[in-house]
Amino acid sequence: MARERIAIIGAGPSGMAALRAFESAERAGAEIPEVIAFEKQDDWGGQWNFDWRSGIDQYGEPVHSSMYRNLWSNGPKEALEFAEYTFDEHFGRPISSYPPREVLWDYIDGRVRTTNVKDKVRFSTAVRWVEHHEDRDIFTVTVEDLKNHQTTSSEFDRVIVATGHFSFPHVPEFQGIETFPGTLHHAHDFRGAEKLADQRVLLIGASYSAEDIGVQAFKMGARSVTMSYRSGPMGYDWPEGMEELPLLERFEGATVSFSNGETREFDAVILCTGYLHKYPFLPSDLALQSGNTIYPAGLYRGVVWQGSPKVYYLGAQDQWFTFNMFDAQAWYVRDLIMGRAELPTAAERTEHLQDWHQRFQGVGGDADAVRFQAEYIRDLIGATDYPMFDLVEVVRIFLAWKDDKKKNILTYRDKPYRSVMTGSLAAEHHTTWLQELDDSLERYLSTPEETDVEKAVRGVDTPDAPAPGNVRGEETPTA
Amino acid sequence: MARERIAIIGAGPSGMAALRAFESAERAGAEIPEVIAFEKQDDWGGQWNFDWRSGIDQYGEPVHSSMYRNLWSNGPKEALEFAEYTFDEHFGRPISSYPPREVLWDYIDGRVRTTNVKDKVRFSTAVRWVEHHEDRDIFTVTVEDLKNHQTTSSEFDRVIVATGHFSFPHVPEFQGIETFPGTLHHAHDFRGAEKLADQRVLLIGASYSAEDIGVQAFKMGARSVTMSYRSGPMGYDWPEGMEELPLLERFEGATVSFSNGETREFDAVILCTGYLHKYPFLPSDLALQSGNTIYPAGLYRGVVWQGSPKVYYLGAQDQWFTFNMFDAQAWYVRDLIMGRAELPTAAERTEHLQDWHQRFQGVGGDADAVRFQAEYIRDLIGATDYPMFDLVEVVRIFLAWKDDKKKNILTYRDKPYRSVMTGSLAAEHHTTWLQELDDSLERYLSTPEETDVEKAVRGVDTPDAPAPGNVRGEETPTA
């Protein structure tokens, strides 16, 4: 029998996990199927592959990454660590718990950069259309080589969709927004907070984008940061200059009216209104239609498409766990494909889906949701040879992280956590997040002498009232 | 014989011209094929259908329009007027020669809004993939209804590609650009110049985008406007505060170095670096690959795809003439499809293409290029029942327009031209372009009393040295 051909669409963290899963089996002596990954960017890493462009990329494709220059992890790295490739192994020494983007990219790249898996990726290649031939149960995948504009089609036995769901912004209408004269875009197109210095900033939304861009804008010296919520406020103990208001009702030029009757003028508006599940290369009977939820309908064990069980999704959930969950999913999907794990019948899968959906209905808050996702991962890992890790302890880390944020949204990233993989405690970083203005890998891994400027700054910095955005010598309202 | 089915992809000015061409034949009593247009936006008008969003639209699709709120026509309307639906007919009275965007949208909408052609358009519908079945010489067109996420496929006998080529930005790399901390995007994502007030603005490019956004930024009170050219400067007599520099070499944060050794600091950078021909829904053997040129290779008479003569392109040329050229193309394509015009053999088409390419090689400058495009249009109209118009006079209008710009880039839009369709002279507008800050249709068509503010402003305004961006009471460097 000829080897099966597997198409992986996307080589971000999920697609890389799939590549690694197959490579891991091959390294252990197994014969693996022919695997080809298609990645529209020039390099892998997905979200973690920063693009200075916004909107449309150098090939005319929608820009994939929603990350900005100054982004640091907003959760402790101990909650996302690979169970089979630790931070200690990669960096050779403990690093802090909240690394900047480039450091995390280096980590996920490092796991696979010395293997042969990069040869399996067609970079700068966009998948244009997938057709399912039901008679033979195979797929024609049509792709475009973006560098030479050539389209080609070939047949695959299975398709793994790993394109993520934080790339296509959800950009709703607000009354009068077309009259707003200032900076206006979605968080997806946010590339750095430096330009928000001295600006009156409105962030529409009350989730991670608003929280993170909000404190980043504050850090970089925004004159004011207003966050507008629909269902409820985030409720952190915001520093002076940051506030939450209920949903905005309308724009009239630069003036925004809120549902509590207040009005404000703004210089910049960023829509932190979430993302769409979007798979423009899939016919609708193969395309997941879902909001951002931790257990999307139609995916057996969160990965097998009920409508066609040779189609798999990785990372389609809303995520507490990230990299290690993608691993658990990728290892399980690999084992299904290689016949190491048995796919239940459609009826059994439906029953399983209903069971887990019922459990999901019982989830009543963030702590519950973290535990639910931990149990989901435990179930997947149990079916594979991926190393089991202490999920109960990782849940505890997530809950402590949430506590840290409640205590101080500006300093939570300075706290170290202990790895459940190695037992080693994270390093304290040489510079606090609030004072660090150089987010590069080089600076992060350096052990700089404290400069006079930093000493001076630290002198006015206390854990409860950090100095707002004045590191570059800008005026501060309070100091 | 069953009626042929024709798919039109895109309902902007070119697609609307195709719809009008068929409707015009039907009105005259002919039986026309079944025509269906697919338009991803919620309304027609293409570029002229303003979207406040940038980058990605409400359905997760790339935003089509590259226009900004304050955009006015940058060429006289007398050079783009439909020969069979005049401005006088639409507005009932003479209007000025350079109307704002909304006024031009109203004009192209007005020609067809009272007909049945809107019923032939599937709005909010993106074409995902076109497959050519060579055995039967028919096309399967797969589309997605963006509102309900359903994909459907159906067969067509012919495909008219009318998606334009000023929608996918060309976003090249510049050394260090990822370190630029200010506003940074392509002209495609520019939505209004108000936010450039008091900013030091760099526009990379030396064509229409740079010219137009440059004077718009000046009008709205930019502190300085620098335009960077690759081949040569535009060379207008720029007002104080605007300058042209040769190509930039690199960014270091906010500082930009130019090839002549100069450096400048900027607050905002807009890439006016042009657009890509991009047809992500077409296999490469049907997709035009071209730069922006007035006679693209591979299109017989600028419209028939040599590789498959049941595929047509409208508006694929670089354009001096616009709306009336799209009409000439649409009428000719209609006549080919309806058998009113005969398609020469492939060999004859190749010979014709080579002839015109040879003529095109002889084009030596803008005046020549305008004349070349006029002759191209004359050739098309000669083959159809579209009303011939005085192309020599329109060439003269184009040349006068270029002269006007050379004389004063800030006042050329105030000059009236005479319609070759009706013989009537355009109105002088109630407010000069430089003083007009309300670009709405309502304001444009009104006959406002001059306000005190306007009088005061006009008092410091002379044709040669207009007051920079101080209409809103902002400080000016010179006044």
Descriptive keywords:
five-stranded parallel beta sheet; oxidoreductase (chains A, B); 3 domains; 20 strands; 479 residues; FAD/NAD(P)-binding domain; 10 helices; FMO-like (chains A, B); alpha/beta; homodimer; disordered C terminus; FAD/NAD-bd_sf (chains A, B)
**First-last Cα distance of chain A:** 74 Å
Write down the oligomeric state.
Answer: homodimer
The CATH class designation of the largest domain in chain A is Alpha Beta
Number of domains of chain A: 3
How would a textbook summarize the main sheet of chain A? 5 strands, parallel
CATH A-level architecture of the largest domain in chain A: 3-Layer(bba) Sandwich
CATH superfamily of the largest domain in chain A: FAD/NAD(P)-binding domain
Helix fraction of chain A by DSSP (H/I, runs of at least 4): 25-40%
Strand order of the largest sheet of chain A: 3-2-1-7-20
Number of helices of chain A: 10
Report the C-alpha radius of gyration of chain A, rounded.
23 Å
Greatest chain-chain contact: A-B, 52 and 52 residues
Give me the CATH fold name of the largest domain in chain A. FAD/NAD(P)-binding domain
Shape label of chain A = globular
Write down the overall mean pLDDT of chain A. 93
* H/E element order of chain A: EHEHHEEEEEEEEHEEEEEEEEEEHHHHHH
Please indicate the percent range of residues of chain A in DSSP E strands (runs of 2 or more).
15-25%
Low-confidence regions of chain A: 458-479
DSSP strand count of chain A? 20
Structural class based on helices, strands and sheet pairing of chain A: alpha/beta
